[in-house]
C-alpha cells in the first residue's frame, strides 16, 4: 500500500505528468492535495492500472481531494521550449490552479524547477510510493486520454482513441501514409527513418 504523504501532512501536493513520450497531443500534468486519513487500496501508479480502474478512480480522487487541478501544454509550446520544460510547465500550471496553496510539493521523477517559494522534492518512481503523486498520475492520464479521444474524432486514421498519440507501429504507419496534423510534435522523431516524411 502506498504512503499518504512524504512529509508531515501540511497540505502536500503531489504532481505528475502524462504524454511526455507521445508523438501527438499535449503533455498533461495534474497536482493533487489529499486529506489526512485518505485511503484507497486500488490507487497506484497509473501505468500499473487498467483503463477501467483509472476511470473508476478519477471521480473518487476528485471528490476526496482537498484540491486538484490539471493542465495541458500543447505541441506549439512543446516545440518552443522542449518536452522537459513543457512537462515542468504543465506541473507548474496545475499547482498554480490549486484552490489551496501547498506548503510542500512532491514531484514524480528527477527533474523540476522551483515553484514560487514552495519547497519541493523529486522522487524517482514516486507515483508508486505516495498516494498524492499516484492520484496526480491518474488524473493526468485520464484527462489526457479523454482529450486524445476527442482529437480522434477529427483524425480517426491515426487511431488516437487507442494509442493516445504514443509511437505505436500503427500510428507511425498512419503518419507515413497521411503525413502529420497540427496536433503532431514536429520536432519529435515521428518516423524511424525521417527520409520518408515530408515536413
Oligomer: single chain
Q: Assign an overall shape.
A: globular
Fourth-level CATH superfamily of the largest domain? Ribonuclease H-like superfamily/Ribonuclease H
- Helical content class: 25-40%
How do the helices and strands follow one another from N- to C-terminus? EEHEHHEEHHH
Biggest sheet descriptor:
5 strands, mixed
Terminal residue distance: 47 Å
Question: According to CATH, what is the topology of the largest domain?
Answer: Nucleotidyltransferase, domain 5
Low-confidence regions: 195-199
Cross-sheet strand order for the largest sheet: 3-2-1-4-5
- The counted number of beta strands is 5
Highest CATH level, the class of the largest domain: Alpha Beta
Describe the structure.
It is built from six helices and five strands; from the N terminus they run ββαβααββααα. Strands 3-2-1-4-5 form a five-stranded mixed sheet, sandwiched between helices. It starts with 11 loop residues before the first strand and ends in a 21-residue tail after the last helix. It is globular and about 55 Å long. α1 packs across α4 (131-154) and α2 packs across α3. The chain has 199 residues and is of the alpha/beta class. The protein has two domains: 12-147, Nucleotidyltransferase, domain 5, CATH 3.30.420.10; 153-193.
Amino acid at each position: 500500500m502506498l504512503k499518504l504523504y512524504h512529509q508531515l501532512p501540511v497540505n502536500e501536493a503531489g504532481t505528475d505528468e502524462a504524454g511526455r513520450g507521445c508523438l501527438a497531443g499535449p503533455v498533461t500534468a495534474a497536482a493533487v492535495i489529499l486529506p489526512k486519513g485518505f485511503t484507497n487500496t486500488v490507487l497506484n501508479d497509473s501505468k500499473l492500472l487498467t483503463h477501467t480502474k483509472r476511470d473508476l478512480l478519477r471521480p473518487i480522487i476528485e471528490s476526496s481531494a482537498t484540491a486538484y487541478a490539471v493542465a495541458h501544454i500543447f505541441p506549439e509550446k512543446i516545440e518552443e521550449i522542449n518536452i522537459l520544460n513543457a512537462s515542468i510547465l504543465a506541473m507548474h500550471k496545475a499547482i498554480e490552479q490549486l484552490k489551496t496553496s501547498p506548503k510542500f510539493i512532491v514531484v514524480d521523477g528527477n527533474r523540476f524547477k522551483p515553484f514560487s517559494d514552495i519547497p519541493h522534492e523529486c522522487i524517482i518512481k514516486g507515483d508508486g510510493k505516495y498516494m498524492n503523486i499516484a492520484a496526480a498520475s491518474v488524473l493526468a492520464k485520464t484527462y489526457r486520454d479523454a482529450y486524445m479521444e476527442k482529437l480522434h474524432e477529427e483524425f480517426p486514421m491515426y487511431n488516437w482513441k487507442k494509442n493516445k498519440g504514443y509511437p505505436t507501429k500503427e500510428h507511425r504507419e498512419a503518419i507515413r501514409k497521411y503525413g502529420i496534423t497540427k496536433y503532431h510534435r514536429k520536432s519529435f522523431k515521428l518516423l524511424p527513418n525521417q527520409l520518408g516524411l515530408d515536413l
